[in-house]
Design goal:
575 residues; alpha+beta; Glutamine Phosphoribosylpyrophosphate, subunit 1, domain 1; seven-stranded antiparallel beta sheet; 38% helix; globular; disordered N terminus
Length: 575
């Protein structure tokens, strides 16, 4: 089918869907699914209702925001294994009310020390995949960092004993919980993959104990995970990285051709990092530096600051066009520069400078979609996922994101442990000399990014929006919805989104055709048509547009304002 005929069909579909959908207008709040949640003493916003309740219970028991965030994360690892768990990685930004500072934690793991590049290439040749790592199996497994991240956060900002913090997740793992609708959908896909893969281990025993994924409303139990979390609660992080859990992992990997070893777990460390920021129209927006992709959002905001988005109008073709082009530009830099800083020198200050943004902005044609961009030349200066956020009565706030990467991760589960390992190593490139080229003991490029916004030196918003490459695009849309178009915190998350696909990436060759833009049905047909006239390829979205959670601080009224993603199962709750 020719592109012109396809465009006509897409436009017709867009018109039909747009006319049947509820109008998406800002002032009338037609798209808002619920009101913001407002409370004085504490707030939690997570992707699972039970996890939000657990976080509040911990806060009411005298726990800090960090205590509550760990408790919620442990529970979601049980209840939403489609996105996270203790076989994955973690990133966090914490606002500490005592020091009035932001702290960043990179709790992502590294590739196995015993898997050389030569051995990896030989293994890939065996499975006829010489150019990239597979999605599932043993090869994309990297050292899990989440549990160490919990203890790093707890050691610095926690108060309650870890037995109390992990107790609710342990109890639900033993007694069971009802599976929610959206999670059940993703769970079934993960089980189907595992049934097709037939990897050794206990994945199906854990996640399909009756031969199939649990359906919505079914009670699911994971006694093996309860035992593992109990070991961690009693023995601390060393139970996982040096003790009985590490021993089980090592023995299973040796017996089944995996490369992760106890030595990898023993040598694992998290890293405290300085959050990176740019000022966007008077608001200081913070993300974590590479190996994560957070600074892509900051680069996009720097470029967009040169346009009057407010006058252009929400979801207007003019605003959508410059936002999409800003994404294309930032992602070319993302593909070239973002990697483990211990292995590559990253021009962070140059990438985030206003001067560099002005240079990149000049490349945008306001009337035509760019088909291909090159990465820039910034000055070198020295020097599937869940998101949750919690705030406590002392003013501490946590922005935390945790992930298995794709869906239910690698599909590898060690018998008796009750969790699956991440497949984050898939994100390494195999291009010699590339910043993100595979090497043993190296952190792969990461997509998961927590965010935080300060206004006049005070906390304004802790938020995140999970979903692979959607995340920086989603962060920018949330910020623009709030600052440029004056939406409230719930409206900003409910508003129709777009995502651009096809940029140069670790698993995608150089973009030469401009990629394509997927839009939700709330985007007006008039904007879709005008974008197509500019040369954008448009599809109506049926995929993932992220999962948003947020907590804002209202200094005037001394309250928290919570908002939660309408596209997932969770909610915001306060007391």
């Amino acid at each position: 089918m020719s592109f012109s005929r396809l465009s006509i069909l897409v436009a017709a579909l867009a018109l039909a869907v747009s006319l049947s959908a509820q109008p998406d207008r800002v002032n009338g709040r037609a798209f808002a699914t619920r009101s913001e949640v407002i409370a004085q003493h504490g707030m939690a916003a997570t992707s699972h209702p039970l996890a939000s309740q657990i976080a509040l219970d911990v806060l009411k028991a005298g726990g800090t925001a960090v205590d509550a965030a760990i408790a919620a994360n442990a529970a979601i690892g049980l209840m939403e294994p489609t996105g996270n768990g203790i076989g994955g990685d973690l990133f966090a930004i914490v606002y500490d009310a005592k020091t009035k500072k932001l702290y960043g934690l990179n709790a992502s793991g590294r590739s196995p020390l015993g898997l050389s590049r030569e051995q990896l290439m030989a293994e890939l040749k065996k499975i006829n995949r010489p150019e990239s790592l597979p999605m599932r199996g043993f090869l994309p497994i990297s050292t899990p960092g989440a549990v160490d991240g919990w203890f790093e956060l707890h050691g610095k900002f926690g108060k309650l004993p870890m037995k109390d913090i992990l107790g609710p997740a342990i109890r639900y793992a033993r007694e069971g919980f009802p599976v929610t609708e959206y999670i059940a959908y993703g769970w079934s896909a993960g089980v189907r993959n595992a049934q097709a893969d037939k990897f050794p281990g206990a994945f199906l025993q854990v996640y399909a104990p009756n031969g199939a994924a649990p359906k919505k409303g079914e009670i699911f139990k994971n006694p093996a995970l309860a035992d593992t979390l109990t070991l961690i609660a009693d023995g601390g992080r060393d139970a996982y990285y040096k003790g009985p859990i590490a021993d089980k992992i090592d023995a299973f990997m040796r017996a089944n051709g995996g490369y992760l070893r106890k030595a990898d777990l023993e040598k694992h460390t998290s890293t405290w990092v300085e959050p990176a920021s740019v000022n966007y129209r008077g608001y200081d927006v913070y993300e974590l530096p590479p190996n994560s992709q957070g600074i892509a959002a900051l680069q996009m905001l720097n470029i967009l600051e040169g346009y009057d988005l407010k006058s252009m109008g929400y979801n207007s073709p003019e605003a959508l066009h410059v936002m999409i082009e800003a994404k294309k530009l930032a992602f070319e830099d993302r593909a070239k520069f973002y990697a483990d800083p211990e292995f590559s020198k990253i021009p962070l200050q140059g990438l985030l400078s206003k001067t560099y943004a002005a240079e990149r902005r000049k490349l945008i044609d306001l009337k035509r979609a760019g088909r291909s961009y090159d990465a820039g030349n910034p000055a070198m200066q020295q020097g599937d996922t869940i998101y949750l956020t919690v705030a406590d009565q002392d003013g501490n706030m946590v922005s935390l994101i945790q992930s298995n990467y794709r869906g239910m991760g690698s599909g590898i589960s060690v018998p008796g442990l009750g969790f699956t390992f991440q497949n984050r190593g898939e994100m390494f490139t195999l291009q010699p000399g590339h910043a993100n080229d595979y090497a043993p003991g190296k952190r792969p490029f990461q997509t998961i990014i927590p965010a935080f916004v300060m206004k006049d030196g005070k906390p304004w918003l802790s938020f995140g929006l999970m979903g692979g490459a959607m995340q920086p695009q989603g962060h920018v849309q949330i910020i623009c919805n709030l600052i440029d178009w004056g939406m409230n915190f719930q409206e900003a998350g409910d508003a129709a989104r777009w995502q651009h696909e096809g940029s140069s990436d670790y698993d995608n060759p150089k973009m030469t055709d401009g990629g394509y833009v997927e839009v939700e049905t709330g985007v007006p047909y008039e904007s879709i048509r005008a974008l197509m006239q500019r040369g954008h390829k448009i599809t109506i979205g049926n995929g993932s547009f992220g999962g948003y959670q947020a907590i804002a601080r209202d200094e005037k009224n001394n309250t928290y304002i919570g908002a939660s993603e309408s596209r997932k199962d969770g909610h915001a709750a306060g007391y």
